[in-house]
Design brief:
mainly beta; two-stranded antiparallel ribbon; 14 strands
C-alpha cells in the first residue's frame, strides 16, 4: 500500500500485487460461495460414488517432470464411472519467491507450469465398451496469498476422441491450500472449484467443488482424502457426491 499525503488527508493507493490479490479474491468468492448455494438449492437427488487413484511424478531436472496417473473417475456421458490411465510432461517457469516447508510436489514451487498429457479411459455398459482418447494442454499459475496460502489457477484445453467422435472443451480451476505441521504430522487442507465449458453444448455445463486434506507419508509419498460435489446440467446424473482417495508418489531420479 502506497501512502500519498494531500493538504487535507492521507490517501492510500493499492500497489500492483495488492490489486492482483483483490481481483483473485473477488473471483474466488464468486466460485466458492455464490455458486455452491445455487447448486445445493436444487431438488435433484444426487448419486454417490468412490474414486481411488494413484499418481507418480518423476523429476528429470529442475524444470522438467514426467507425470503418470491411473484411477477411477465419474463420466459425464454415462451414469457410470470409468477407469483411466495417463502420462505427460510438465515444464516449470519462474520459481516462487516464498517456499512452503519441504514440498514433495515440486511443481508447486514454481509460479507458472505448462503441461501436456495423453489419457485413455474405458467404460463398459450393458455389454458395450466406450473408449476415449484425450490430449490435455494446460497452464497453471500460482500465487502466494497472505497466511502462507498457495493459490493455483489452472486453465486446461481437452481434445477428446469419444467413440471416434472428436470434440473439445475448456476447464478453469481455482485451488487453495495451506500446509500445516503439528509436531511430526504434516498435512495440507485444500479446497477449490472448477467450471467446464463444452464445445458440444456451447455452454458451461459442469461445475465441481472439492475439499479435503493431504497427509505426508513415508518414502516420498502423500495421501489425498477428499470430497467432491459435481453438478452437470447436461449429464444423466445432475448431481454427484464423490468421495476419493489418491496416493501420490514422488520417486527420486538418480543421474548416472
Amino acid at each position: 500500500m502506497v501512502s500519498v499525503v494531500t493538504a487535507d488527508a492521507e490517501v492510500r493507493i493499492p500497489t500492483i500485487p495488492q490489486l492482483k490479490f483483490m481481483r483473485y479474491a473477488r473471483l474466488s468468492t464468486l466460485l466458492l460461495l455464490i455458486v455452491p448455494f445455487c447448486i445445493l438449492a436444487q431438488n435433484t437427488r444426487p448419486v454417490s460414488e468412490f474414486d481411488p487413484g494413484l499418481t507418480v511424478a518423476l523429476d528429470l531436472s529442475k524444470r522438467v517432470r514426467l507425470d503418470f496417473a491411473t484411477g477411477r473417475e465419474k463420466t459425464e456421458e454415462l451414469s457410470l464411472a470409468k477407469w483411466k490411465v495417463s502420462g505427460g510432461v510438465s515444464i516449470r517457469f519462474k520459481p516462487l519467491r516464498k517456499t512452503f516447508l519441504d514440498l514433495l510436489d515440486t511443481d508447486k514451487k514454481h509460479q507458472f507450469v505448462l503441461g501436456v498429457a495423453y489419457e485413455f479411459s474405458r467404460t463398459s455398459d450393458a455389454g458395450t465398451t466406450f473408449r476415449e482418447h484425450r490430449i490435455m494442454v494446460d497452464g497453471a499459475f500460482r500465487y502466494t496469498l497472505p497466511a502462507k496460502v498457495l493459490m493455483t489457477n489452472r486453465a486446461r484445453f481437452e481434445f477428446r476422441w469419444l467413440q471416434n467422435e472428436f470434440h473439445w472443451r475448456f476447464r478453469d480451476r481455482l485451488f487453495f491450500e495451506r500446509q500445516l505441521k503439528i509436531r511430526k504430522l504434516k498435512f495440507t487442507p485444500f479446497g477449490g472449484a472448477e467450471a467446464v465449458w463444452d464445445r458440444r453444448y456451447t455452454r458451461w455445463n459442469i461445475f465441481k467443488f472439492t475439499g479435503g486434506v493431504q497427509f505426508r507419508l513415508i518414502r516420498r509419498s502423500t495421501l489425498d482424502l477428499f470430497y467432491e460435489r459435481q453438478h452437470c446440467v447436461t449429464c444423466s446424473d445432475t448431481n454427484t457426491n464423490i468421495v476419493g482417495i489418491t496416493l501420490n508418489i514422488y520417486p527420486l531420479w538418480k543421474k548416472k
